[in-house]
Amino acid sequence: MNSYDVAIIGSGPGGYVAAIRCAQLGMKTAIIEKYSVLGGTCLNVGCIPSKALLDSSHHYEDAVKHFEEHGIEIPGEVKVNLEKMIARKQLVVDQTTGGIDFLMKKNKIDVYQGVGSFKDATHLVIKGDKEEEIEAKHTIIATGSKPSTLPFINIDKERVITSTEALKLKEVPKHLIIIGGGVIGLELGQVYKRLGAEVSVVEYMDRIIPTMDAGLSKELNKVLKKAKFKMNVSHKVKSVERVGDEVIVKADDKKGNEVVFKGDYCLVSVGRRPYTDGLNAEAAGVVLNDRGQVEVNEHLQTSASNIYAIGDVIKGAMLAHKAEEEGVFVAETIAGQKPHIDYNLIPGVVYTWPEVAAVGQTEEALKEAGVAYKVGQFPMRALGRARASMDIDGFVKVLADKNTDEILGVHMIGARAADMIAEAVVAMEYRASAEDVSRMSHAHPTFTEAIKEAALAATGDRALHV
């Protein structure tokens, strides 16, 4: 029987990063993955493939709608080859997962293919082509999550689909009904809207991206409506029925009136659930809560002291970069170091166009907590760089403590927001004030000038270009 210092169940961003860090710290490490490729949801059917399709569809939309304005003339009709687009997406996925294989070999990490489960707290059974058993002093559970559904919905993976199937459709839907107005639904909705589908979003809450700052929700809603998305908020879905190639969705609006949606595809995007199926956690003394999450303490230790859990399988935002941070945190904890994670400073991003990004506290949270704060906001359309690239939608908002000027939250919607948010994270990690950021030189012309201008506005209505 092979023995290891650390075994990791799951090879998503949390698992494979944890494995690399454990190996870097001199621990003999194994990683167990049920599928034939490494990378988990993010690399195979999540972050990476969805961004590839978003990028391809963005190029198409630019060619159809914006090239002429830039003085670029294309003879003949611009057409979508969906099969080729999906193939390119798969090539990106294959290259990325292949990179993980390389990193495992480089760091001398043993990879086991099969379903890993606990025999007891220090022994794991792996059921793949053959059944084998390994011993591990420490184990990290990094089994991630799966798409959630509603109890009355039958996901047939043909017409009633999850994000997994939406990444490999054979045709552009005529009318895509999306149940859920969160990140995944809106991103995939934008892909197919650009390619010619009619898109209807049906959201239970009173706004889209409901966990983010209300200002971002309002602005994104405005932009998507301008793109002819049909938004239906405060709608409670009560039935989804497939009749041949048609899907019929019935919902009650906020007044209790029934609304019927008919389309050829329905994407169920109502969040994700922790995935612990087949783990046999109880055999190791690992406790799950009533939401199916693995219970952990502040050290990400489970009720079995030598077993840890990270990523989507524990509480908190289901984000790849959160899982990565937790993977490093646990590896360093096992090695006897004293790492830390500030969960308030884990940024969130929606990769629509314009992109939406945020870090820290929302206005709603500050109001609820009774924190005295001030706001600085700056519109993207006031930037020379935004006008040059025709990306004028959106704004940057800086929230700062009214008394100390420390930045408490930064919220932005606009071109390149996913990259720009890192500046806000750095500033807040060092507990910068709005004035600190406002006094930093930002290259001109860039989108990041909006951060400086919003910080100037927060320090006392001092924005220069509005």
Quick overview:
With about 475 residues, the chain is an alpha/beta fold.
Question: What does this entry look like structurally?
Answer:
The chain is of the alpha/beta class. It folds into three domains: 2-146 and 273-341, FAD/NAD(P)-binding domain, CATH 3.50.50.60; 160-270, FAD/NAD(P)-binding domain (3-Layer(bba) Sandwich); 345-458, 2-Layer Sandwich (Enolase-like, domain 1), CATH 3.30.390.30. The chain is 32% helix and 26% strand. The protein has helices spanning 13-24, 40-45, 47-65, 82-106, 163-166, 183-194, 214-226, 320-334, 363-369, 384-389, 417-429, 434-438, 449-458; strands at residues 2-9, 29-33, 110-113, 115-120, 123-127, 131-141, 145-147, 160-161, 175-179, 198-202, 230-232, 236-243, 246-252, 258-263, 265-268, 272-274, 307-309, 348-350, 355-360, 373-379, 395-401, 407-414. The strands form five sheets. Strands 1, 2, 3, 4, 5, 6 and 17 form a seven-stranded mixed β-sheet that branches. Strands 8-15-9-10-11 form a five-stranded parallel β-sheet. The chain has a five-stranded antiparallel β-sheet with strand order 18-19-22-21-20, with helices on both faces. Strand 1 (2-9), helix 1 and strand 2 form a beta-alpha-beta unit. Helix 1 (13-24) packs parallel to helix 8, helix 3 packs antiparallel against helix 4 and helix 3 runs parallel beside helix 6 (183-194). The chain is globular and about 65 Å long.
